[in-house]
Amino acid sequence: MTPDQIFAFVVALMSAQPAEEAFPGLASGGHDPRYPVTLAPCLRPLDPWEIEGRTIVCGRVDVPADHAAPEGRRIALGFAILRARSLSPAPDPLVFLQGGPGADVVSQMQTWAVAFADWRQRRDVIVFDQRGNGVSDALTACRGATSGHFAEIAGAPPATGAQPVSPDALLVECRAEIADRGEEIALINTAQNAGDVAALVSALGFAQGWNLYGGSYGTKLGLEVMRQDPPGLRAAILDGVAPPMVRLYDELAGPPDEAAAAIFDQCAGDPACAAAYPDLEARFNALMEKLAAAPIPGARGRPPATPELVATLIKARNKPGVLTGVTAWLPKMIVELEAGETATLDAIIDDEIPPPAPTAAEVVAAAPIGLTEDQKALAEAILHMAEQQKASTAAMRAALVRLGEDASLLATPEDLPEAFERAMLRAAQRMTRDETLALLDGYAALRVGPQRRGALLDFVAAHFAGDLRLRLSRLVQAMTPADVTQTFARLERDARPYEAELLFGFHLMVYACQEDLPWNGPETAKAFQQTLRIPVMGAGADAQLESLYGQCAALFEPAPRPGFHAPVRSSVPTLLLNGLMDVQTSWKWGALAAETLDHATNLAFPETGHGTLLYHACSRDIGVAFIENPQAPVEAGCIDDLAVKWVLPDGTRSAGSPWPVRHR
């Protein structure tokens, strides 16, 4: 942004504007009386360039707990709308369906505002927390079970003399609390989620035309939405595809196996790599057996070279920013390990491979054109200024985040909720360890029961004494009703990240145990294990499945639904995106889903793991162009530029051969 644009942004940030002006109809209850909308403050932090009420709005949509019984119980789904940047936006938004299942979105707006920035140039982007997750957790909330052990959940050892509680025991307590409330946990399923998507779109005023982007589990949800065929669905992007007909848990080892096999297939398809490293797959499997029998000792504190270490390195490429570019070095590493050498492996472990970004001087020295000394000095100066600008931009982003948070606080002469929190933190520094743990548990327990001034006063009386109790009590008494609400909101915000780490597995099991495991089985999983090309990549899958089946038996009843695992047939234009390094959803599964879709384009990306949009501009640009015109042929030539350029034994690189998997 230019300095003038930044100045205008800061002025706008400090100027209040009703959300109704930027988001017509939402402040008055939304666009569909069947699904009322209530606006609410967005969870912080937001992306630095967001202005609540202008560029982003958040709230709740009221939907039936059971879409087959719309007159029954209602639940609230938390949502956020990121407004299009264009002054002439397209009318059809992009609706993001998060993965997991069990991952929340609304509390992670900084991440998703960046991830969908390219689509947002022309379209609104809508995100929401699926039922049972994040701020939409009415059916699965178990704050009573977690509050009593909150300090442990946050990572602290138990109080003196107290017995530690295991995560499995906490989940059993959580499930019991949900059952005691009479919640019908079977209503948390993919079919009901798909009904929520249609309700959300209608409530927000986009039923005439909209698009979806599903990631991971969100692809399974997206396919179910397509099966239900709600009005207005214009196009779909499925990224990291998990089709309903795949037996996900029988094939738990499939994605890691196929990600490893893709390394050897790509090398075999590259003439230089194939010549330098012939029969690499067979040699790798033999090497893994050799290392299992006799690991190569690690030098200078490094771990020994074992099959587990090598498999971990291959799997780690699944996340963006982790071991980026290391694939090109793996054949060289394998050949060295065959000879008992660990030079490349050690360099990977020490973060020396891939090599760090070149310095300004190195960039100039490597320039393919001849430069005079003056030109070299000028080029280096420009590159140094670019580095300084990058650092300055990062500092400015941090300052804008803080400014946005400060601007969102309730305008009182003294911010009483923050003063209350600061006073508690200062007091905790003077407490004994056991007193601090009791304070944390008591503070978390405020989320259970009525959120009233009296609950705060009772908490103060239970954990503080003397002048501090008097000061905290006076702060609470001075609070307005809005201050009290804000205090409980801050508590929920502070507690959520710790609780979410424990409950993510619980939320995943809600779906896995009810929908998927009845479609899978231990015997068929063992049979699948025998088909792996790279057996080491399946190590540990049996133990994972055994643990999951045991947890499911303790917590949930199977709730299979007829037809759910049948292939989805749809005429909605669909773009399927797959990463060859993905160890969560196989890159081969996109082709399976595409078989029954009338207008599908299936693409596989080298050097890409789970969630292609997080890796490179190629998948994002293809996706943006597709949503802009879903009927046009997909131009995917940029995939060829991602081809691995293999490191050869002499340190030079191969030319790279394009990966051939793409079809319409």
From TrEMBL:
**Which GO molecular-function terms appear in the entry?**
hydrolase activity
Question: Could you tell me the keywords of this UniProt record?
Answer: Hydrolase
Query: Could you say which protein family the record assigns here?
Result: Belongs to the peptidase S33 family.
- Tell me where on the tree of life, at the top rank, the source sits: Bacteria
| Every Peptidase S33 tripeptidyl aminopeptidase-like C-terminal domain range | 547-634
* Classification via Gene3D superfamilies: alpha/beta hydrolase (3.40.50.1820)
Instruction: Enumerate the spans annotated as AB hydrolase-1 domain.
Output: 93-245
Question: Which protein are we looking at?
Answer: TAP-like protein
Alphabetical list of Pfam families matching this protein: Abhydrolase_1 (PF00561), Abhydrolase_4 (PF08386)
Q: Which PANTHER family match?
A: 2-SUCCINYL-6-HYDROXY-2,4-CYCLOHEXADIENE-1-CARBOXYLATE SYNTHASE
SUPFAM superfamilies cross-referenced by the UniProt entry? alpha/beta-Hydrolases
